[in-house]
Write a structure and sequence with these properties.
By secondary structure, the chain is of the alpha/beta class. It is about 25% helix and about 20% strand. The structure holds zinc ion (ZN). Zinc ion binds near residues 49, 99, 101, 102 and 250.
Length: about 350
């Protein structure tokens, strides 16, 4: 092979790529972690959602982008944890639905960090002539730049993210038709769950996923509402058990039926609530009594919850006072063991593998 300037460029690219991956390894090591672990960052976007999954090989999935406005507050917080995880781009950004606390941050995010592919449930169906239509239109403008790919997700799909399995559970109001492997037992919590009318908003259309990493399972259903939970979980439990529940809808009482929360038998719940958004007393109570639940973690102390219903302060990233944007970090191994850390205090709780 003749060595041409083109080949020289290729070699330079290869050299840069290998030095970048060395830098990434060095950075991970400096944070005291070992190879082979999944990291999940629960970014504080003040009662919206933004959750970043990073595989051991550096593949990444961000679920939702927080709010619009606030001068890059949410985009900057996302980019800060992305950098901490050694990322210079985000491979996939999944939008659960088009409410402004989920899709609103898209334009500011892409201005701060490149996004490979967006994943969504299809067109916005909440025609409110207001924030939801605006948020969807702004997202369409970002797609129209052609800088990112786009995937339309359906229940049962496996998303093409390497290094972990991300299975679509709900999308655009539809749910998986059959139980997941190993699940499908009759659900005793259906008969003690209140029946509620169908929600007509984008919440009920949330694109929900289950992440599997080795033996570990994490459930994130976005803002999926109570009526959809009942459809998913009754009469048989289509999900089986999970280890970590990302509490639906920021812990607002419109989600978190017993049919879901009690049946999945999660070890840990993580709630992406704000001080004044989500964190409803009925949800906090449901979680505090959920079978098998070892710890309730929260991004904020809930004003509504007060001292009687909030979890212990060491499990809360942001306590009352000026907004500090602290996050929670989950680090998991394939054997099912994991730990959760609070960036406000550096307190870490370890959860040994059970299986
Ligand atoms: Zn929301």
């Amino acid at each position: 092979m003749k060595f041409t300037p083109f080949h020289a460029t290729l070699s330079l690219v290869a050299l840069l790529a290998s030095s970048m991956s060395f830098a990434q390894t060095a950075r991970s090591a400096s944070h005291g972690t070992t190879a082979g672990q999944l990291k999940v960052y629960f970014v504080d976007v003040e009662g919206g959602q933004s959750t970043l999954f990073v595989t051991p090989e550096g593949h990444s999935l961000l679920v939702d982008t927080g709010w619009p406005d606030h001068e890059y507050r949410d985009a900057n917080r996302i980019v800060d944890v992305a950098k901490q995880a050694g990322l210079s781009r985000i491979d996939y950004v999944l939008l659960t639905h088009y409410h402004d606390d989920h899709v609103g941050g898209v334009p500011q995010l892409v201005a701060r960090i490149p996004v490979g592919t967006f994943i969504d449930h299809g067109p916005n169906r909440e025609l409110d002539h207001g924030v939801t239509e605006h948020g969807y239109a702004e997202y369409q403008k970002v797609l129209a730049t052609g800088k990112s790919q786009r995937i339309l997700a359906h229940p049962g799909d496996l998303l093409p993210i390497q290094g972990m399995t991300a299975r679509v559970i709900s999308a655009d109001g539809s749910l998986i038709a059959n139980a997941l492997p190993g699940a499908g037992e009759s659900n005793p919590y259906c008969k003690v769950s209140e029946v509620r009318p169908a929600d007509q908003t984008e919440n009920a259309r949330s694109l929900g996923i289950e992440i599997t990493f080795g033996k570990l399972k994490i459930l994130d259903l976005g803002d999926l509402t109570w009526d959809k939970e009942m459809q998913l979980m009754c009469p048989s439990n289509k999900l089986g058990r999970v280890d970590i529940l990302i509490v639906s809808h920021h812990g607002w009482y419109q989600s978190s039926s017993l049919a879901l929360v009690d049946a999945i038998h999660a070890r840990v719940s993580i709630m992406d609530n704000g001080a004044k958004k989500g964190g409803s007393i009925p949800t906090l109570e449901t979680l505090s009594k959920a079978p098998g639940l070892e710890t309730q973690w929260q991004l904020h102390s809930s004003d509504e919850g007060g001292s009687a219903h909030n979890t212990a302060e060491r499990y809360i990233a942001n306590i009352q006072g000026p907004d500090a944007g602290h996050f929670l970090e989950l680090i998991a191994a394939k054997n099912g063991s994991f730990e959760v850390s609070n960036s406000r205090t550096n307190f870490t709780q370890k959860y040994p593998a059970k299986h």
